[in-house]
Amino acid sequence: MKTPHRLISPTAASAFFLIPQILFPLFLLFSPLAAKDEGRLSGFQEGLRHPSKETDPRPSREATVGEEALAETLSTLMGGLFVSGTFNSLALVAPESGPDRPLMSQPRAPGEAVLPYIEGEFQYQWVDGDTDALDFRLTGGYGPAGASVRWTRFRETEPDTRLDVLQAYGHLRLTLGNFLEFSPGLGYGNFSLGDDAEDEGGLALTLPLRVHFQPGIGLEYRPAWVFPNGTTVSDQEVALVLGRRNAFLRLGYRWLWNESETLSGPYLGVSLRW
User: Rounded mean pLDDT of 223-247?
Assistant: First the structure.
């Protein structure tokens, strides 16, 4: 009796059925559907942990005589600005402390833009379709001495994530007349992603500038830099300020970025000052 001819051997058949069992787990492993979408806020936080390894290819060189002279001139001008700005700030809040009143200065009245005794701000920012931010800032001081605290919560809906940004500074408030204030500050910045993530923070520097042409119209520019883990986060903000005396409307735009991600968009806010 003849043995029936088999088109596929038992060994080949077993191998055939093993192929799906091997490929299917590999498909799940490498499939984009299996990967967790971290979102923009997670990408931003991840960029705080890994400093760039790029190096500047340009060779170092010694400064020329002209560059040294320019640096010395700028240093002298900045020194004069700090001294005159400090004395002007003292005279604005305590005119009886000096016999001479600085040029273009009148004693500060409560609610004026420069040198607020206390000022609070709230802003709502549109970042993109599924990300927004709530921003609170409190600042105060007396004369040239000041301090500020700023807390921002970025919220992302897909995936559901939040990023909290805290900045605290001590300021030297320098003024020119009653219309311009330059307040360099040194402090600390911190970034926290959700409840369980580790915080990333570091030294922070800010150089805010405000110019008010009239009591109710002004422009403000607030650049700041935070340096966590050898990385750099830039926080830039520009705003048009409109109002009367103690209450103001703020229309502005803010950029917060590092090497991994940028969070930027327009904002609308209010501020109260005394």
Answer: 93
Which pLDDT score, from 0 to 100, does residue 4 have?
Answer: 52
* Nearest CA among 210, 229, 225, 221 for reference residue 254: 221
Q: What is the pTM of this model?
A: 0.75
In the chain, the N- to C-terminal Cα span, in Å, equals 110
Residue 251 C-alpha from the chain's centroid: 17
What is the CB-side half-sphere exposure of residue 231 using CA atoms within 13 A?
23
Where does 3-103 show beta strands of DSSP type E? none
Domain positions in the chain: 112-273
* C-alpha to C-alpha distances, 225 to 37, 115, 120, 201, 253, nearest whole angstrom: 28, 23, 22, 11, 17
Query: Which CATH number is correct for 112-273, 2.30.29, 3.40.50, 2.40.160, 3.20.20?
Result: 2.40.160
Give the strand pairing for 185-193 and 200-206: antiparallel
Could you read off the pLDDT of 46-55 as tens digits, one per residue? Answer: 767 666 555 4
**Sequence-distant (≥ 6) Cβ neighbours of residue 155 within 8 angstroms:** 131, 132, 133, 134, 161, 162
pLDDT tens-digit map of 3-42: 555 545 555 455 445 555 554 454 444 444 433 456 778 7
Conformational region of residue 194, where left means phi above 0, alpha means psi within -120 to 50, and beta covers everything else: left
